[in-house]
Fold this sequence. Notes:
Blueprint: H1 11-18, E1 28-35, E2 41-43, E3 56-58, E4 61-68, E5 71-75, E6 85-86, H2 87-94, E7 106-111, H3 112-118, H4 150-154, E8 163-166, H5 167-171
Antiparallel strand pairs: 1-4, 1-7, 2-3, 4-5, 5-6, 7-8
Amino acid sequence: MSAHRYTPFYCEENCWWLAQDPRFSGSRVEVVFITNATRSVALFHQRAAEEPEAPVVWDYHVVVCEYRDNEARIWDLDCTLGAPLTAPRWLEASFDARVLPGYAPRFRLVEASTFVRGFVSDRRHMLALDGSWQAPPPPWPAIGRGLHNLDEFVDVADPRWGRVLDLDAFRA
């Protein structure tokens, strides 16, 4: 994945850049926020896992979904199985048969161009109480201009951006 801008723990920014990749020309592309009402969603096969078979519990995670030739492909830059994966393969590896109680995912799908135009992050969500970084920030400037709005995308009850689906609906 070295061809893409990538900084660990900044999936929303990684996907903001990825959504603009010229190789998606001619494809329908959506940015997908994965979270739930408690902001505790478990994904398997993630780089940040402490052990290879262990899940990572994210407050949210972000991937890009590309639709081309009647197939959906998921670009999860944090997946240890590589990217892209077909949507069924990625779902199977990340969730199927292993959705942990209380960690069931919800998926917010936002058209890529809408996300690129509308997303603003000043990275405040990555600051610890003492003002230090929880993870080093990316080398590029913070994304967007205006008021920080990451929570609008992550809050599954907020209707402003895209549509929200449960696992079965997203799988379909």
